[in-house]
Design a protein that fits this description.
Number of helices: 7
Number of strands: 7
Shape: elongated
Strand content: 15-25%
Distance between the termini: 84 Å
């Protein structure tokens, strides 16, 4: 079924409104991200992790920073792809805090991974489990929400205890294992990237929405097609000749007068006008 102008106009309006709403939501998300993390994004201010070691109460959900010197090892990795194309790998390490608490730390850049691997080697090589190499970790402190990663994290300690020849209960009696991590991939630069992405996409969608709504509005102002100046040439230019109704209607199409004259002039001599009877046999 062919679409009418009203249907097309309504479809354009609906599309324009949808684009507009999505665009506004995207811009709002970008602005909320900036407002919620303004001190960190603009000034680089974040909490010092060392300030929470004594109490053991950690500011989960906040951006923190600390110098990393002791890592037990790498316990997991996650690979990211876009349309089948590799876009990066996250690496997860066990971080040993100065208050004898173990937490996780997550990094992504190749340089960070190389630095943390070096710290792992130096930690195991040092008598006091302390590396001379330092890594400034900055990121959001989060709970390890992924169940599979939590499993890998806890399995690491089982393997560590087996390697050290101790029971896990011995480890947990002296050390605290916290299922939290410093996500260094959720950093200041990543926040600015999210802000730019959402705001840029939102502005683009708003511009598309305005163009779509303007196009829909133009349907009301579209000029009507004027056929008055169009030359019309009929198919048949022969003048119309009505049927001549002056003569009586003859279904045979023959000329009655001509027919009568012909009958009179061609009378059979053997015929009479008395109903076709022979005068010699007339009764």
């Amino acid at each position: 079924m062919a679409a009418t102008r009203r249907q097309t106009k309504g479809g354009l309006k609906a599309s324009g409104i949808i684009y507009l709403l999505i665009g506004i939501v995207c811009v709002a998300i970008g602005i909320i991200t900036l407002i919620a993390n303004s001190s960190y994004m603009i000034k680089g201010e974040c909490l010092k992790m060392d300030d929470y070691l004594e109490s053991g109460v950690y500011p989960v959900g906040e951006y923190v920073k600390m110098d990393v010197h002791s890592l037990l090892g790498n316990y997991a990795e996650t690979k990211h792809t876009t349309n089948g194309i590799p876009t990066g790998t996250d690496q997860y390490y066990v971080l040993w805090l100065d208050n004898d608490t173990f937490i996780s730390i997550k990094v992504k850049s190749k340089k960070d991974i190389e630095t943390l691997n070096k710290i792992v080697d130096e930690t195991w090589a040092s008598d006091d489990w302390y590396s001379t190499t330092s890594f400034e970790a900055t990121g959001k402190l989060k709970n390890i929400s992924n169940s599979e990663l939590r499993g890998f994290y806890n399995d690491f300690f089982d393997e560590f205890c087996e390697y050290m020849g101790i029971e896990k209960s011995e480890l947990t009696s002296q050390f605290t294992i916290k299922e939290i991590e410093i996500d260094c991939t959720d950093s200041r630069s990543s926040l600015w990237g999210l802000f730019a992405l959402f705001c840029g996409l939102g502005v683009l969608l708003i511009l598309v929405a305005l163009a779509t709504l303007k196009k829909a509005k133009n349907f009301d102002n579209a000029p009507a097609v004027d056929y008055s100046n169009v030359d019309y040439t009929p198919v048949d230019t022969t003048a119309y000749n009505p049927v001549d109704t002056s003569a009586p209607y003859d279904p045979t199409g023959a000329d009655l007068n001509a027919s009568s004259d012909a009958n009179l002039n061609n009378t059979d001599p053997g015929m009479t006008l008395n109903g076709g009877q022979d005068p010699n046999n007339f009764q």
